[in-house]
């Protein structure tokens, strides 16, 4: 039984740990064995502390035996995203500038997860400074897709998603600006949730009023996502946008009568025909659950301008000093984003904020008519790992490494909760995710819809076999 503990859902495993049917040492040891067997091929976990994890597991077992109350995540191993600060453990941001950086404090979400009893085992791979939805960097190389090792795992939480998909950890933290929780979840057949900004507060933060980016949970099931979110969410006085209420999830809900808008191209985006074919099969699932589904979506015509303008501004402010000191250490696409941000004028930023207000209102108008929006997560299936990004989508050229991510980053501007849930596979066996979006602050409804779809389809129960194929040689990203 111990050797198969890595297959257990986090919710079930946490219950077994609280009942002392298994020990934290057994659970951590099983996942460390799984990491040793799989990670050399997938390259999802890039820093590993097995001795420290086993010591922490033993201490957790001793506290529970002495009568201490078990936290919600008691004994569950987790490797944290390598952009989230971890006190005493290397945090590189995927950059050679920080290859040996060891922080002296934790990011707030790390603190909350560990206080709930989770056991730190290491860190998961990211793109350089989390820029882009393909996980590769000059420090650790590329993370490979568990369903096809020659393909991308997505990003920027690609290491986290690949580690989940292969059973190297039962839960994972991540963050999302333009799709960094949703895209890797779609590529790796797991579940990723971008919560309403402020649901999971950020500290420390260089831009504490920012609502483009947010931390959030990944897991193999919606119930496990909800479990982790209940720990990550909640008010904090150091965050000016933190929502006041803690998060508690009751995922059981009858969807009869829900009004759902289905937008397969989000207003005309190029989407790979194989992705469209998988998503088309989702519509009758919702109809069968009693929902009223029709093709409709919010007006997102200005959302791309808003996102790219505000993102460039943030990149110029956040990375400018390091870029000035070490320009050669930045990949060309990231350097270009920083330069774009520096060319922005006051009028550019003013127009972006005014357009953002119009997109926000368009979203509110849409959610007055519909309870939820269904859309693609990614416009393409997982692409070759040796590419920096897909250069064509449905025959349309993609001129930058951001173009193919529009199906996620346009939704970002709505300020709404968005869930990526497994929706099926292409004929080649590559995963495709469905994006479920609801009104801002209706995070629970998003998860309830996702849980119902998950139960009706069970696509997330299809495990990969990363030992089946060896990675092929290809040009470096």
Automatic annotation (TrEMBL):
Instruction: Note one Pfam family from the annotation.
Output: Amidase
Q: Taking every annotated instance into account, which residue ranges of this chain make up the domain Amidase? A: 26-446
Gene3D superfamilies, sorted: Amidase signature (AS) domain
Molecular function via GO = catalytic activity
- NCBIfam families per record: PRK07486.1 (NF005686)
> What PANTHER family has UniProt attached to this entry?
INDOLEACETAMIDE HYDROLASE, TRANSAMIDASE
Record protein name field: Amidase
Look up and give the organism this protein is from: Paractinoplanes rishiriensis
State the taxonomy lineage.
Answer: Bacteria, Bacillati, Actinomycetota, Actinomycetes, Micromonosporales
């Amino acid at each position: 039984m111990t050797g198969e503990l890595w297959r257990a859902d986090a919710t079930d495993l946490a219950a077994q740990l609280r009942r002392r049917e298994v020990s934290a040492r057994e659970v951590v040891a099983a996942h460390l064995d799984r990491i040793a067997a799989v990670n050399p091929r997938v390259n999802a976990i890039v820093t590993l502390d097995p001795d420290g994890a086993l010591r922490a597991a033993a201490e957790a077992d001793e506290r529970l035996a002495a009568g201490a109350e078990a936290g919600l995540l008691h004994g569950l191993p987790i490797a944290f995203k390598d952009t989230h600060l971890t006190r005493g453990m290397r945090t590189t941001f995927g950059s050679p500038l920080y290859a040996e950086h060891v922080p002296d404090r934790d990011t707030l979400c790390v603190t909350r997860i560990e206080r709930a009893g989770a056991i730190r085992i290491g860190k998961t791979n990211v793109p350089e400074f989390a820029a882009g939805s393909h996980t590769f960097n000059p420090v650790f190389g590329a993370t490979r897709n568990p369903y096809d090792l020659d393909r991308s795992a997505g990003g920027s939480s690609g290491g986290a998603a690949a580690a989940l998909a292969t059973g190297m950890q039962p839960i994972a933290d991540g963050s999302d600006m333009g799709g960094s929780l949703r895209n890797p979840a779609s590529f790796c057949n797991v579940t990723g949730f971008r919560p309403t900004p402020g649901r999971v507060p950020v500290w420390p933060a260089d831009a504490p009023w920012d609502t483009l980016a947010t931390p959030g949970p990944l897991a193999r099931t919606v119930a496990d996502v909800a479990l982790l979110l209940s720990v990550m969410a909640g008010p904090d006085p150091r965050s000016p946008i933190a929502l006041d209420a803690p998060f508690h999830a009751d995922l059981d809900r009858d969807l009869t009568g829900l009004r759902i808008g289905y937008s397969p191209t989000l207003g005309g985006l190029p989407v790979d025909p194989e992705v469209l074919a998988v998503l088309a099969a989702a519509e009758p699932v919702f109809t069968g659950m009693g929902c009223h589904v029709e093709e409709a979506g919010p007006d997102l015509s200005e959302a791309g301008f808003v996102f790219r303008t505000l993102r460039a501004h943030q990149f110029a402010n956040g990375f400018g000093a390091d870029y000035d000191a070490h320009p050669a250490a930045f990949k060309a696409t990231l350097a270009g984003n920083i330069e774009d941000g520096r060319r922005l004028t006051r009028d550019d930023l003013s127009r972006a904020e005014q357009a953002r207000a119009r997109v926000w209102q368009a979203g509110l108008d849409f959610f007055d008519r519909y309870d939820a929006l269904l859309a693609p997560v990614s416009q393409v299936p997982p692409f070759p790992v040796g590419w920096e990004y897909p250069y064509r989508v449905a025959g349309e050229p993609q001129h930058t490494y951001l173009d193919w991510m529009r199906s996620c980053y346009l939704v970002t501007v709505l300020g709404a909760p968005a869930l990526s849930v497994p929706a099926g596979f292409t004929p080649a066996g590559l995963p495709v995710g469905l994006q479920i979006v609801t009104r801002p602050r209706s995070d629970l409804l998003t998860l309830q819809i996702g849980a119902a779809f998950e139960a009706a389809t069970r696509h997330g129960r299809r495990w990969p076999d990363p030992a089946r194929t060896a990675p092929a040689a290809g040009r470096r990203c």
